[in-house]
Structures are given as C-alpha cells and as structure tokens.
C-alpha cells in the first residue's frame, strides 16, 4: 500500500484527535445520569446496526463483479435496492408509526440478516431478492430508529436540546469509528484471512443479531398514531398534507433528497473514479479513510450544535463545499491528462480526487446530525416515520435513474450533475432559513399581541 494512503489517514486521524481532545466547556453540555444511560443504550444499538451496514459497503460492488456481472448488471442490482426502498419505504414507515417503532427496528434486523444470507448465491435472481430486502431494511434504518429515539426522548421528559448530543455522538461513533473498524475488519476477513468477499456479509449478520437481542431486552415501544381508525391510506394523507401545507417541511425534504441522492450516487462512483484504468487501490482502507473523514465532520457538527449555532445557516456553507468537491473529478480530468496505462498504482488525478472525496465525506459527517436536528424541529411526531420515508422517494428515484443510465454517460457528467444538485441544496437551505426566521418572528408577534392586554 502506498505511503500516500497512510499520510491521508494519519493526517485525518490527528485532526480528529485534536478536535476531540481540545473540546472546551463551551463544546460540552451538562446532562443527567438518566439521560446518559438512555443515550449510551441507543448509541450501542445504533453502532451495532450501522456495523451491520458498513461491513457490507466496501465489498458489495466487488462481490458482484467476482460473480461475473458487468457494470450494467451491477447497476441493475443497485437499482433493485433503491427501487425497493422507494416502493416499500413509505409503507413500512407508516407501519412503524402505527404498529410501533421498536417492532420496525426488529424487522430491520431480520430483513437485513436475510439479505446478507443471499450473498452466498451467485444466482442473479437470488442476489436481486437480497437487494430488495436490503432496500426495505435501509428505509427502516433511516426512519424507524430516529423516530423511536425522538419519541422516547420526549416521553422521558429530557431537555430537547440534548437530542443534538445523541445525534452527534451516534454519527461520530456509528457513522465514523464503527465504519472505520468495519472497513478494516472487512478488509481483514476478505483479504488477509482469505475468506473472500462474502465473509463481511456473514459478520454483518452476527452484529445485527446482537443488536436485535439488545432491542428486544431493553427498549420500550412507542408509536406515532396508534389509533384504530387510521389505516395506511389515512397515514399517507396526513403525511402528504403536512408536507404540502408547511413550506419548511417541503424544503427540508427537497434538501435531504438532493444531498442523499448525490451521496448514494457517489457511493457507486468512487471506485471507478479512483481507478479508471483498473489501478490497484485498497478498497477497505480507502473506505476506512472516508469514514474517518466523516468522523471529522461529525466532531465539527457536535461543536457547532453545542454552541447553538443556527443549523440552517452553517449548512449552506456545507452544501456549497460539497458541490465543489464533487465537481473536482470534472476539473481534474480536464487539467490532468488521463493515463492510458492499465493497472499500476493510483495516478495524480486519483490522488487529488481522493482528497476531494475525503472533504465531501467530512461534509457528510456534518450533514447527518444537522439534518436530524432539523427533522426533530420541523416534522410532526404523529407521522414522523411516514414523512421521513416520503422524503426518500425522490432520492431513490433519482439514484435509480442515474444507475439505470450508468453506461450512457461519462463519469464526469454524473459527478457534474451531483455537483449541480448540491448547489441547489445550498440555495434551498438559504430559503429554509428565511422561512424559518419569518415563522419565528410572526409567532413572537402573535404571542406579544396575546400578552399585551394582560399588561397594565
């Protein structure tokens, strides 16, 4: 492995360590022992759930290619996952609100474990079933757990500001440290131990089973709207009405779709971008480097949130930086002459792109706790999971369209498109801040008008 990879990883690690060790009193919030116990339990479960997801990440594309499928076949498998999430996500989200978020979290574990088992088969149809199950699981992962947390946090009467602590710590560990360890562990199982690319999926199933046992033994159940007179169609109508009637919710959904759509497209594109001529790159180690970058972003986010900086304000900068980093492959391919040499080590253009991708992953680390914070403020509790999965419909549709046409466009065109979408997210984030400030000022005027007759 080239020294370049070690230098990037070491530099990022040093910055993250300095940020975490250098936290002052302004960067910390005083909490209660009861909250800390609740927070630690959730973070443990969330970390196990994410380890089950992250272990699979570095080897999904590689496993399919080892089974003899080309980029087009692999793209269709990815489409099956995102399409499944789009078609079934809203349904499972509504069921989570009505039937219980804890049950939905357990369902996630079972569904994803079954998806892992399908990876042992080289048959395309079996792998397609696995992708469909994985798509359903993904919808539950990014809606049911957060919905359970917010409802349980409020039910226990904890300070609403403390939610940011749980969000930041969960992303720092679950989307950062756990992802790094998972990437290295997957690399160890598949390459160093020689178990092959299916081994990380077996390990993922084990971690998911452990997490499910903790959920069953320690979590309470909570609901969005458990009334018997509300069927799924009514739940859909409530969610759709909330989005249509509140510009803040609609803007938040559009922002999330634009960013996550670009992010999931990046997941598919980073491997061919860094090795356009089949250069030898350490997939697991690069994946771990990306996750260390995400840790850096979540560490920055925890400081911003602890100091109560306006999320709607700093996220405009984050989206703008993200747009620039994903436009970098377009720039490097124009300025750095592409090499025609097959194989070998990563080229100069690849090195520059890797640094840009690490910056993008840092933005992802800031994005997750920040978007969670905004969702907890703007999305109504009674249909939280349903609305959150409504948000995923356009992003899954976008990713499906991109992957379906993956062979039709040069990789630079797809990166350029993602860059445009991220710039649009920055503009919409600006609009969300304006609408939010206007709503707060109007509400303050109304409250003053109500109190005025009471004053002598």
UniProtKB/TrEMBL annotation:
Signal peptide: none annotated. Pfam families: MFS_5. Keywords: Membrane, Transmembrane, Transmembrane helix. InterPro entries: MFS_trans_sf, MOT2/MFSD5. It comes from the Eukaryota. The chain crosses the membrane at residues 6-22, 43-62, 74-96, 128-150, 170-189, 201-220, 285-306, 313-332, 352-371, 383-404. SUPFAM superfamilies: MFS general substrate transporter (SSF103473). The keyword Transmembrane applies. The keyword Lipid metabolism does not apply. CDD domains: MFS_MFSD5_like. This is Molybdate-anion transporter. It comes from Urochloa decumbens.
């Amino acid at each position: 492995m080239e020294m370049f990879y070690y230098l990037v990883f070491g530099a990022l690690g040093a910055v993250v360590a300095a940020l975490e060790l250098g936290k002052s009193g302004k960067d910390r919030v005083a909490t209660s022992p009861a909250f800390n116990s609740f927070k630690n339990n959730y973070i443990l479960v969330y970390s196990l759930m994410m380890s089950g997801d992250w272990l699979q990440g570095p080897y999904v594309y590689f496993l399919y290619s080892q089974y003899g499928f080309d980029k087009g076949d692999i793209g269709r498998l990815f489409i099956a996952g995102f399409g499944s999430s789009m078609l079934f996500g809203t349904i499972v989200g509504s069921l989570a609100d009505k039937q219980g978020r804890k049950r939905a979290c357990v369902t996630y574990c079972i569904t994803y474990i079954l998806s892992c088992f399908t990876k042992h088969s080289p048959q395309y149809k079996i792998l397609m079933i696995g992708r469909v199950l994985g798509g359903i699981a993904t919808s539950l992962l990014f809606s049911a757990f957060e919905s359970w947390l917010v409802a349980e946090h409020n039910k226990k009467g904890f300070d609403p500001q403390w939610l940011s602590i749980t969000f930041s710590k969960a992303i720092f560990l679950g989307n950062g440290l756990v992802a790094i360890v998972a990437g290295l562990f997957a690399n160890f199982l598949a390459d160093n131990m020689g178990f092959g690319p299916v081994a990380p999926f077996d390990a993922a199933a084990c971690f998911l089973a452990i997490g499910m046992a903790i959920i069953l033994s320690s979590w309470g159940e909570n609901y969005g709207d458990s009334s018997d007179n509300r069927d799924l169609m009514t739940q859909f109508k409530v969610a759709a009405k909330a989005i249509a009637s509140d510009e803040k919710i609609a803007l938040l959904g559009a922002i999330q779709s634009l960013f996550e759509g670009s992010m999931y497209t990046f997941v598919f594109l980073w491997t061919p971008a860094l090795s356009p001529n089949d250069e030898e790159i350490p997939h697991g180690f690069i994946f771990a480097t990306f996750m260390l970058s995400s840790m850096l972003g979540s560490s920055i986010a925890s400081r911003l949130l602890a100091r109560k900086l306006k999320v709607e304000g700093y996220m405009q900068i984050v989206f703008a930086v993200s747009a620039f980093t994903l436009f970098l492959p377009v720039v490097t391919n124009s300025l750095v002459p592409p090499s025609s040499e097959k194989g070998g080590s990563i080229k100069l253009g690849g090195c520059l792109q890797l640094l840009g991708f690490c910056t993008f992953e840092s933005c992802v680390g800031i994005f997750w706790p920040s978007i969670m914070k905004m969702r907890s403020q703007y999305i109504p509790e009674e249909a939280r999971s349903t609305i959150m999965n409504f948000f995923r419909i356009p992003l899954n549709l976008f990713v499906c369209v991109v992957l379906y046409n993956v062979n039709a466009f040069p990789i630079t065109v797809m990166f350029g498109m993602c860059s445009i979408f991220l710039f649009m997210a920055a503009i919409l984030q600006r609009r969300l801040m304006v609408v939010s400030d206007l709503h707060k000022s109007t509400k303050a005027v109304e409250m003053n008008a109500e109190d005025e007759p009471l004053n002598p």
